[in-house]
Amino acid sequence: MSDVVRHKRVIERECNYRRYSGDITELDFGDGTKPIKVAISNGKEGNGTCLGCHDAPCMILKSEELSLPDVVSSFPGDPAKNVCPTQAISWNEAGTSIVVDAELCIGCCLCVARCPYGAISSTGEGNVVVEDSDPSGLSTIVEESRNTQDHIDPIRIGNLAQANSQTVGRILEGLGSLTDIEATRFVRNLLTTIGIACRTRRKGDTNVRIDGLVSLADGHIGVIEIEFGNSVLESPRALLEDIAILHGRYDIQLCSIEAISFIVALPNARSEYFQVIADIETVLGIRCRTMTLGAVLTVLWSNLKIQSLGDNLFVTQSPDTSLLIGMKEHLSSSISNTEPYPGAYQPSK
Amino acid sequence: MLRFPNPGSTIANFVFVYTAAFERLQNQTVNLDDIVAATVEANLATSSGYMGSEAIARSTRTDRSRDPLYNQLKMYAELFRALGWLHPTENSALNYNFTLLGRQVVSAGQFYMPLLEETVLGIAHPSHILTIRGDHNLRPFAFILRTMLASGDALSRDEMIIGPLSALSDRGDDPVTEVATLVGKARQDPESIKAAVENVSRLRNAQINTLRNYTRWPIAIMRDCGWTEKVRMKFRRTGRSFEVHRLTEHGKAVALRVADAIDIRVDQADSLSIDQKEGLSIHAHYKMLERSGFDIAPVMPKLDATRDAYRGALNSLGVDLDSDILFSPFQSLNVSDTGRIFPAVNEGTGTQQEQVTATSRIDGRDSREHLFVVPNYVQQQEQGDGTETASLKEELRGFLESCNSIEEAAEKFAISRSSDTQVQFYPLVSQMFRILGFKSEHSRAGVNYQRWDACVWAGNIAIPIEIKSPTEEVYLSTKAIRQALENKIILLARESLETSREVTSLIIGYQIPNERGDLSSLIDDIFKTFDVRIGVIDLYTLTLIAMRATIDEMTIDRDQLSLLRGFLHV
Fold this sequence. Notes:
- The complex is a heterodimer of chains A (349) and B (570).
- Chain A has 349 residues and is of the alpha+beta class.
- Helices cover 24% and strands 18% of the residues of chain A.
- In chain A, α4 runs parallel beside α7 (293-301).
- In chain B, β14, α24 (517-530) and β15 (534-538) form a beta-alpha-beta unit.
- Chains A and B meet through β1, α1, α5 and α6 of A and α1, α3, α5, β7 and α23 of B.
């Protein structure tokens, strides 16, 4: 007899509580304001429901999602794997389904994007709801202990959420109440969920000053500086330091390093920011890209994934450039022209 | 006073460090180097701007007291021992085994917190597992919580110092009232608490900041366990407010529970027969796990088999059978007892990292001597602007006359400028260069359309200068290096002044930090990556050179200045 005993919650998490009666084939998010329609392989359709997944991808990132290429795999990333930036999501008392605290939820829809079964949907009013009553009768309770296999990735159509003043306003308001480390973790989770493997710095590590590293499917490695305050101008010079460290200490070729500032909104068109970025490209041949929170939310909410940054994704060549042009060219021409909030795509004049 | 080390930033990270070490080394006897290696491999520790194995190489030193990673993990290990997660071996206090209790923490995965709370409450002194300084007979966290209950549900950091953490014993007649009375007196006004803390400082012969550092971990763990939250209270006499850590609803429930529980200490356990000690240990351990959410059904046969011995133990100690007890065998009993009672505890077979300690102690890594540049003095060809610099020259001469050496004069002059703001420091820098025979101009503080704070010309070639006044940064940081790089890029791109790529971008600051590894590594990285030179001069060095120019009209070689990479070093 072993002296080691197991935690009840760990035991509960070894299988899905329920399963659909066939493999899931399609998730239709519609316009991002209604419950998600699910299609399964036996021809049944209906509203998705929470299956109580063993690994709760809506709540917890997998270690593999945070992995970086060998050359930078020792980057001291934040070990926390929680998905929700405000800790709004948790298990219900019985451990059979997840619940979302509407007060805490800021409606970013990370959990919506990560749920493999279409159980979580945006209300269109700045938060999300969980369906766990299986209104369409698609599921059965799992009797036997099993089902630790990976989830099937179905076709996804429609938009996770609508960018309106309520949804975007709630996120911007929520962002202000996050601690530095929570905001940084939010960025990591956004990028990871749109297909860019990312690791952000662990709190308390003063030895490595890079805010985050990303790994793109095309083999490029990116340094990322996150600036949610008023010091956007600090960002390009911090990126140069990051590049110097990666090249100087880890021999990563300059041509395979992407430099990315992650900010809330592009600064005013008269800001020195754009000129400094242009100066860096002129003198060093390095193109500093700018991701705004709004642009990344658009990618997430449009069900898009980013494999590479190409020549023009998130590039601001001058104060007149709009990020939307690169996003339409590189990701999807169907992205809405409406800017989620001022400064998300183009600088205010 | 009880001293808790403070190794890290968050309690979650604290648990991650243990988990990383456990997952990699669980079946071995380990030493601190093993734990360092495991922690670095899990990307949980870095050193000197490096990550991975390079971090270990740069940290490891023959003199282990100067080895940052080793010392950080030493602090972790001390706390892991206090929590009963790690045991020293019977033969060496520097070799460790992972305990069954630690294994349970890891096996709980993301649900570790309730067990962490239990093991925090399980810390008690004396213990066979950890010897501490001082003759304390305390269960510190239980005592802090009980003192909080008796002190308006809250304690400030300084009240913890003068109260529960300074108490020698929490046993006896009414230690909580005694300590709470002390705290109550200190809450009269700010002077009372200040005097009480100073008294502890004097008695313990320790700086107040050091005493406060000892409270960091306890405060962090009470916060992260959800026991306390920060609020403000008012001093009774003055009405001024001060920050306290107040019990949350959960914290209050825990405090009430420990206040009602029967606290069994190691001396009592040691007084029991072997069977009774085993019964008490097995039941206390699994009850603790059950409270923490573990399924103890698989060990019920074991509990049944030892139930009589458990009852016998409680009878011997005069404890009611239904009592909630505070006793954690892995945090109290000696290693041979826990090994006998819980035979599944791993006994390792030799440490893994002997090769690391043998090969990696190379004191730092990489010489940076090439970055310390001794000035090459030449006869001054051009005189500085006499009218603008006359007053500064006069001041420098004054220091030279009143001191025994040029070094002493330069040092005293630098100290005299330690309160300079940008308004005084920018012109000082440009005037110094003019004394050296170089054309130099500074921008007005706050005017940043040009970015660089000053400029010095080597012939026709402009060298941008980033200046950090002592009131901005006493010690130069990497921030200045970033700005110097940007200055150079802007100057090259906008061509507002004549310059060239190979000419340095200067930084003038008040002092260069003693630990220059970070600055020098970055200067090398920038040169290797962008082919841009960054030169650094501190005020003492600049003053000494300017004094030489004042005395004998010697100055720094123009080419050396314009190609400076690293620190000008006199």
